[in-house]
Design a protein that fits this description.
single chain
Length: about 425
């Protein structure tokens, strides 16, 4: 869900609920399909890795059950492929570089986005308290902590993941409960906009950021058992996220008539009967503190893998001048841009989600599945439920329209301001 619960409800309030519902459902469909494409590509890469093309063609001629079972087994997720290495399998070193650079641009953008959100929201949370109410203090602390935590694989510490999962679901439940309490107290449901196409670009960027996780799927699904249920898990996860986004946005619009005036949804609760709940809901922001070290590790690993392939496996978490240098190369530009763009979170979200996020969510998975289907001539047991051969081309085309359109709209807004 990422930043979705914080930035989506105000974006929905500005764009109108009917338009937002259509956009959320459309991107739900695209996100699920592209997630299935990533799973299909992961299975195809393992199949290619297990046998040569000629052996695959020979096996297609066998009809006995034992051979069919072996054919299915070679698609199992045995090798730990990543987003970049899936591209390398298809297009060589240059393909890997293109995929990794696209991923780095997206992750750099997300780190800047999260830095701005943390600095703005926590400084407001401590308003009136010296030092603690300063944006620059929290941004500096945030990135300094990230440097330290990035040398520990915090993403794989079970207790940390459990604690943050509890915080995430508890704060989301508190948001929905707080909105319902406000509706009950006011004894009315505020009217909402239906269509406001002028704010569609901002809405679209927020929606993409809420749904995109496709770059992480290869590492996320590999440990899952049974593997045959992975598609069902994906469907449940995305439909669950869609339901949460609808509930948060709808209850928020009904409860707060001024929701469109807030940049972050948690700030809407700092009023009336939900003012005490506001401090608990704001704990959602601290989830970003755990996300930044993981993103830093991912960027550092991919940069080292491209530039220093012999070093990245041994020096990834080891404190050395190489790993520290790459860490600073990741965080210093993000820190500078987070300071510079303090009051421009909306265009940042729209560009990161509506441009770089579109490449990660739509274009790369679709291009990969097109190529992998050319190389695998037999049925892939992990293939998408919708196996229309023209659909990936359509999604690539849509992505190539959405990304430049959103970039144009946001640059136009920036110039006008």
């Amino acid at each position: 869900m990422g930043t979705g619960p914080l930035v989506l409800p105000p974006a929905v309030a500005n764009a109108g609920f009917s338009l937002s519902l259509i956009a959320l459902f459309f991107m739900l469909f695209i996100s699920v399909i592209c997630a299935e494409y990533m799973i299909e590509c992961l299975a195809a890469a393992n199949a290619i890795d297990s046998e040569s093309e000629s052996e695959i063609q020979m096996q297609n001629m066998e009809q006995d059950l034992t051979q069919q079972s072996l054919n299915c087994e070679k698609f199992d997720f045995k090798k730990p492929y990543e987003y970049g290495s899936l591209g390398k399998k298809l297009w060589g070193k240059s393909g890997e570089a293109c995929v990794v650079i696209s991923l780095l641009l997206y992750l750099y953008g997300m780190m800047i986005t999260k830095g701005i959100i943390v600095g703005n929201t926590i400084s407001i949370l401590f308003e009136g308290i010296d030092v603690l109410d300063k944006y620059y203090f929290w941004v500096t602390l945030f990135y300094c902590l990230t440097i330290i935590l990035s040398f520990k694989d915090v993403g794989n510490i079970a207790i940390v993941s459990t604690i943050f999962a509890i915080i995430r679901y508890s704060t989301i439940l508190a948001m929905i409960t707080g909105a319902l309490l406000t509706i009950s107290y006011n004894k009315q449901i505020n009217p909402q906009k239906e269509f406001n196409i002028s704010d569609f670009s901002d809405l679209f960027g927020a929606i993409v950021l809420a749904y995109v996780l496709h770059h992480s799927l290869p590492s996320m699904v590999r440990p899952c058992r049974p593997q045959e249920k992975i598609s069902s898990i994906i469907y449940i996860a995305f439909i669950g996220a869609f339901t949460v986004f609808i509930l948060l946005s709808l209850t928020g619009m009904w409860a707060f008539s001024d929701l469109q005036n807030f940049q972050y949804y948690n700030l809407a609760f700092d009023q009336g009967i939900t003012s005490r709940l506001y401090y608990f809901i704001s704990f959602y922001i601290f989830l970003n503190i755990s996300a930044l070290p993981v993103m830093t590790i991912t960027i550092r690993k991919n940069m080292m893998k491209l530039c220093l392939p012999e070093e990245y496996t041994t020096n990834l978490f080891k404190l050395s001048w190489i790993s520290v240098s790459y860490t600073l190369l990741v965080l210093v530009p993000c820190f500078i841009l987070a300071i510079t763009l303090k009051n421009h979170i909306q265009p940042v979200i729209s560009i990161v989600g509506g441009v770089f996020g579109v490449v990660i969510l739509m274009i790369i998975p679709s291009l990969m599945v097109i190529e992998y289907r050319k190389r695998i001539t037999e049925s892939n047991p992990f293939g998408s439920y919708i196996r229309n051969k023209y659909l990936p081309y359509l999604i690539v085309g849509l992505g190539c329209v959405f990304a430049p359109f959103n970039l144009y709209i946001q640059m136009k807004k920036i110039i006008q301001q």
